[in-house]
Amino acid sequence: MKINCKKYFYIIPFLFLFIQCQAQQRLTNPDHLNHLYESIEVKGVEMGITHIYCDYPEYNWTGDDDEGVACVDDVARALLYYLRTGDLERAKKQIEFVLYMQNENGWFYNFVWDDNKINKTHQNSVAEANWWTWRAMVSLVEGYNYFKEIDKPLSEKILSSITKTIDVMKKEFKYGKETTNLDGFIRPTWLPHKFAADQSALIITTLSLYYNIVPDEFAIKVINDFAEGIILMQEGDENTFPYNAFMSWENQWHAWGNTQSYALLKAYEITKNKKYLHSALKEIENFYPFLLKRGFLNEFSIKKNNGETLLKEERQFSQIAYGINSMVMGTLEAAKITGNKKYSQLAATIATWFFGNNPAKAQMYFPKTGMGYDGISGINDVNKNSGAESTIEALLALQAIENNETASKALHELIKNYGDIYGN
Q1: What is the pLDDT along the chain (424 residues), one digit of tens a residue?
Q2: Distance between CA 409 and CA 333 in Å, rounded?
Q3: Alpha carbon separation from 230 to 85, 224, 281, 346, 360 (Å, rounded)
Q4: Exposure check for the chain: N or C terminus, fewer CB within 10 A?
């Protein structure tokens, strides 16, 4: 059949516009993250870093006199985004950076200076069993799964690094499973820093991923022990404050790093212990809706009074993307495990924080640029800087939602009422 090209020629510009508009509806955009990215070379090895700070209004990279210009904490999360989007070139270089940051003792340093030398003295950069080590491990284990078939030399380096940390964990993780009474609350003493349920959650996530590579009984033991400890940090019930929330440390809860539900769900996937599943779902079904009604919170602490759990202190601000993504991760994992769409819809509702459903009624993430603001400091106070953590956490949250058809559709419907969020 002969096609009359002239007849359809006038349609082409409109078709192009339609395709362009459709593309703009995608929420995740790596442009700003790529702006924060820089290729470096250390001892002949190409690496990739993600700059920590990027300040309003010019949005140029900025460093810190005490910390440096980049850190494992951010690079490890950025490379997860790159892995999941298929940008393996940047992911590979960032894996090389994470490997560079490992100390001979098996733990990881965190910060680097602008001359690419490691900051070994800052309290949040010492090579020890701390947040940055666990983040490094999560990124390396996930990276191994991507590169094991396509880049054998790199995957062998990754596995060697992982093994080194696991070996030192086996030496360091010596604990008795005892509890103590902390101002009226029973707390597990065997978690990191005695009561750090937040850090325990990241360790469970790490070991759950590791166990799928190496079925090590050590991993199962720690997963079970730390999951049991996290459950002891859960307070309240569906009708009683704090509504099945997992305390983050001691008798305090904070939004950032609050991935206890997500970790228990990962533990359930490995162990099939339904207690972990049920405890996680209790927090998601009761505490997360409470946070939505309150306009989200930054942190609070609890106390006992005549056997009753009461609010001791509370702060609503600051609110950051890291805290929001922690909840999105848990709800989407619950949706995956249970098949119940209500969790996908809840994840979408939580994610509306990025588009104006927050106390400042401010858009905090911008699909046109991929920029995520650094936080909300008050009702009328938005931090318009856009550094690594906020950008990455926003992207990871929205990437996960876009990979869940129900959540993605729900979020797009919800944000129709928030104005021109796409920047068209």
Answers
A1: 444 544 444 444 444 434 444 444 899 999 999 999 999 999 999 999 999 999 999 999 999 999 999 999 999 999 999 999 999 999 999 999 999 999 999 999 999 999 999 999 999 999 999 999 999 999 999 999 999 999 999 999 999 999 999 999 999 999 999 999 999 999 999 999 989 999 999 999 999 999 999 999 999 999 999 999 999 999 999 999 999 999 999 999 999 999 999 999 999 999 999 999 999 999 999 999 999 999 999 999 999 999 999 999 999 999 999 999 999 999 999 999 999 999 999 999 999 999 999 999 999 999 999 999 999 999 999 999 999 999 999 999 999 999 999 999 999 999 998 878 887 5
A2: 17
A3: 32, 10, 14, 23, 33
A4: N
Q: Which residue has the tokens 């929330």?
A: 245
Residue 271: strand, helix, or coil: helix
pTM beyond 0.70: yes
The answer to whether 228 and 188 are in contact (CB under 8 A) is yes
The residue type at 143? G
